[in-house]
Predict the structure.
Amino acid sequence: MRAKTYRMSTLVVKIGGSTLGAHDTTLEDIVALQRQGNPPVVVHGGGALITQWLELHHIPTQFVRGLRVTDADGLQVVTAVLAGLVNKELVATLQTLGGKAIGLSGVDGGLIQGRALDPQLGYVGEVTGINLEPLQAVVSQGYVPVISSIALNTSAAGDPLLLNCNADTVAGELAAALGAKQLAFLTDVPGILNGTGQVVHALTPSQAEELLQSGTASGGMIPKLEACLRAREAGAMCYIVDGREPHALLSVLEAGIAGTRVW
């Protein structure tokens, strides 16, 4: 019997820690996609759990334009929670559901390379490069790569060696580097809201830019929309959907009608 071959994924899925719980079906959907021969590249967050662990260590939480300010102590907590606890729990759950998954951080194989973004943000990184070789190795063997957004600092200073990159930003950069056809964000809201609080079901890039410039998009929606714009430049259709809805991922990929579509 001929071994099944896998192409590089044309789908990137970003899942947020706020949507993962006892009733979440996103991981089931990911296993279903893998069984169909189209294993997605998965990027995950973990913001709520990071905040809890920062509180345990008496480290304050502060956000600027949706990005978590990260000092030296905070970087250790973020790395431990994202690349450790959250990543391995996701991989374990996918395996338990019958999938095949391997957990990676952006540091592994130099997958995500970055440099410090802004002094006021501390050790928050901007993505300067993507090395697809680790993903090719994982996907070619039929595994779903599950990626935490800790990046390798490749700047001239290179201190510290690790950087905390926003997971939405990483998902957008990976989608662009892969030439993905689709990028889906599973979040805890119905989609992008306009100034009157109504879900906007479709946005052009110029309309998305307007929401950013006007301040209508705020907080964690800023990096999501910016990531959509980055991926859209490379040709990806982008979706922001409510991951709390049953089988939201499969529904949006099959019908494309839920949440917000950036096209």
